[in-house]
Design a protein that fits this description.
Distance between the termini: 16 Å
Strand content: 15-25%
Number of helices: 14
Helix content: 25-40%
Strand order of the largest sheet: 2-3-4-1-5
Largest sheet: 5 strands, parallel
Order of helices and strands: HEHEHEHEEHHHHHHHEEHEEEHEEH
Number of strands: 12
Number of domains: 2
Structural class: alpha/beta
C-alpha cells in the first residue's frame, strides 16, 4: 500500500537541492517508503549505519555515485546515521559537496534533531518530514495529490475502520488485520524500543521501571501528567520521571500536548496531557477514542506544516474552573479548530466547547462523534459549532 508521503517527497526533489530527513516511530514504514522511492530512480543506493560495511563506506565517503556526474540525480538513502556521535558534521560535509548532483534521504526511528552533540548546524541543508501511522484520510485518499490542507470527504470501509481502531495504524498489524499478528507485534514493539533503541542510545539502566511507566501511561492516556504520582508509583525521583517522559517522547512512544492560554481567562498554563502514538495499547474505550483522534490531529498538523501550508500546532484547553476542551489546532499561532471527542452522536454539544469558542472565536468548532455513521458532507463548510461523524471529519485531514 503506497503512503501519502511518496508523492510529497518526489515533489520535494523536483524543486530543491535540500536533503530530506524522514523521522517517525519505529516500524511506522520509513524504510518501506524509502524503498518505494528507489523505484522511481535508475540509480539509487541504501546504506545503513547498522551495517559495518555500510558504516565504513559512509565514514570514508565511498558512497556510490558521489564522484559521478549523471544526467539523472541518483537517490542516496542513509539510514540510522544519527547513531554516529559526529553525524551532523559528517553529513554536513557530504551534503555541501554533493547536493547538486545527489538527492539525499536520511532516515531514523528517533528524532534526528535530538542528537545535538556539537558540530555545525545543518540548518538550511534539509527539510524534515514526520512519518505517522496510517490515518483515515491516508487510507481513503491514498497517495494522491495533496495541494491543500483540507480534503474532500470520502467514506472509509467498515472493515478498514474496525482494523484501524482495533489494531492501530502501524502498517504491520493494520494490514495483517488479525489478532495473532497484532499481539505478537505489540509485545515485540515495546520490548525492542526499550531494550534496543533506548538502552543503547540513552543508557537507561532502570529499564524495568521505565517499562512499568509505559504501562501506566496506557491507563492514563489523555490525562494531565502528574510527574509526582508517576514517580511515587514506580519509586524513582520526580526528575527521573521528567527525563524518562522526554526520552519516550523523543523515541515516539508517547507525546505531550501543552495547554493553550492566550486569550483564555483563568487558563491553566502548566501540566501537559500525554498520549500514545499507538492507540491500540489502550483498553478503555473512551481513552482509546480520544487517543485515536489525538494521533490523527498530530499527524495532520505535522503534515500540513511539513508541506508548507502554514505553521500548525496542537494544544488542549483547560481553565482553573476545571472546564476543558480536548483539542485546539492553531494555524499561524491563531485558534483555528476547536474539537471535543464524544462516543455517541446523540450527546448534546459540550458547554465547555461553547464557552471557549466565545473567547477564542475559532473558525471551526466540532464535537466529533466516534460512533456516528459517515455523512457525505464537507464539515469545513459549516460556520457554527456542530456535531460531526469522526469518519467524515478524519477523512478530510491527512
Amino acid at each position: 500500500m503506497k503512503r501519502l508521503y511518496e508523492n510529497i517527497l518526489l515533489q520535494h526533489y523536483q524543486t530543491g537541492d535540500e536533503a530530506i530527513f524522514l523521522c517517525g516511530p519505529r516500524q511506522v514504514g520509513k524504510t518501506t517508503i524509502a524503498a518505494h522511492l528507489q523505484k522511481y530512480y535508475t540509480l539509487s543506493t541504501y546504506l545503513t549505519w547498522d551495517s559495518p560495511s555500510d558504516r565504513r563506506k559512509i565514514l570514508e565517503e565511498r558512497i556510490p555515485f558521489l564522484e559521478t556526474n549523471n544526467l539523472e540525480k541518483p537517490l542516496v538513502i542513509l539510514d540510522e546515521i544519527h547513531k554516529y556521535q559526529d553525524w551532523k558534521n559528517l553529513l554536513k560535509a557530504i551534503i555541501d559537496k554533493h547536493k547538486h548532483h545527489i538527492n539525499f534521504l536520511v532516515t531514523g526511528s528517533s528524532r534526528l534533531n535530538v542528537y545535538r552533540r556539537g558540530g555545525d548546524s545543518l540548518m538550511g541543508r534539509y527539510f524534515l518530514y514526520n512519518v505517522h501511522p496510517f490515518s483515515v484520510a491516508e487510507i481513503v485518499h491514498g497517495d494522491g495529490e495533496w495541494n491543500e490542507e483540507i480534503r474532500p470527504p470520502k467514506e472509509i470501509s467498515q472493515e478498514a475502520w474496525n482494523n484501524l481502531l482495533l489494531f492501530g495504524g502501524f502498517p504491520r498489524p493494520f494490514l495483517a488485520g488479525d489478532q495473532r499478528t497484532f499481539h505478537r507485534w505489540s509485545r515485540q514493539r515495546l520490548e525492542r524500543l526499550l531494550q534496543e533503541e533506548i538502552r543503547e542510545l540513552v543508557q537507561i539502566h532502570q529499564i524495568k521501571q521505565m517499562e512499568m511507566m509505559c504501562l501506566m501511561l496506557t491507563e492514563q492516556a489523555g490525562n494531565l501528567v502528574s510527574y509526582t504520582s508517576l514517580a511515587n508509583s514506580i519509586r524513582v525521583s520526580d526528575q527521573t520521571v521528567r527525563k524518562w517522559m522526554g526520552t519516550l517522547d523523543e523515541f515516539y512512544y508517547c507525546f505531550t500536548l501543552q495547554p493553550w492560554f492566550q486569550n483564555v481567562s483563568r487558563s491553566l498554563v502548566k501540566n501537559p496531557k500525554a498520549y500514545l502514538h499507538d492507540w491500540s495499547a489502550i483498553t478503555d474505550k473512551g481513552r482509546r477514542y480520544e487517543n485515536f483522534i489525538a494521533v490523527h490531529l498530530l499527524k495532520a498538523v505535522h503534515f500540513w506544516t511539513d508541506c508548507g501550508f502554514g505553521h500548525f500546532q496542537l494544544h488542549y484547553l483547560r481553565d482553573r474552573d476545571q472546564r476543558e476542551v480536548d483539542f485546539l489546532i492553531t494555524r499561524d499561532h491563531k485558534p483555528w479548530i476547536l474539537l471535543e471527542v464524544k462516543s455517541s452522536p446523540s450527546e448534546p454539544l459540550s458547554q465547555n466547547l461553547l464557552h471557549f469558542q466565545a473567547q477564542l472565536n475559532a473558525p471551526h468548532v466540532f464535537q466529533v462523534a466516534m460512533e456516528a455513521p459517515y455523512v457525505d458532507y464537507n464539515c469545513f463548510t459549516i460556520n457554527k459549532p456542530v456535531t460531526v461523524p469522526a469518519k467524515t471529519f478524519l477523512s478530510q485531514l491527512a
